[in-house]
Amino acid sequence: MLRPQHPLHFIVALVAAILLWYGLAGQKNENISVRGVKAALTLVNMPRNLVLMSSVPDTISLQLRGPLSKSLNAAAGLEVYLDLADSRPGSSSFTIDGAGITLPDDVEVVSIEPAAITLDLERLTSSNIRLLPIVEGVPAPGFTIGETRLSPVQVNIQGPESRVLELESVETTPISVEGATGPIEATVTPRLPDPLLRSLTVVPIVVVVDVVPLDTTPTPTPETSENG
After folding, report:
1. Beta-strand pair 108-113/59-67
2. pTM for the predicted model, two decimal places
3. Is the link from the previous residue into 114 a cis peptide, with omega within 30 of 0?
């Protein structure tokens, strides 16, 4: 009868083979389970000339099927990507596809909720909008507000086309003349009425408010002519 030249090595290899066989057999016989998990939803490849007008769910619900083991547990912390490369202005429905979700080989996606979401997209535009300086406060007694000068007089505002077209003017942050006895100069910023709007103007916006003395000179009265 043939005997192995290295009996110890043979025994170790045999034991390892038996354990591997039992492990694979156990995996095949392991119960299959279904588990619901939350996955982060990320929008990718949005065209630069579009802006999102609707809300987007932070997460979506996935139902996964696989062995009740570390394979199914490893499916936690998933991220699902929704590709917007072919999107156009307007309201459109986008299907959330589970094919691109990275999962262990023995885990599959059973269902996705919601299976699709509707997004409102609008064209991004910009326009030069007139600035309206806001002056607050009351000068010192005996003084009044004179001319108000602004530089620049317009700012370039970018945002969704409908929101930009609604703008006739944009107010500045206020400049105070409370108790002033002379000109007041300050750097201000636009107060944009919508969080989807932003100013593209990078130069400082400077407001100068003239505070001048009240004219206290009495109004002359016409002289009375003498009768002959």
Report:
1. antiparallel
2. 0.69
3. yes
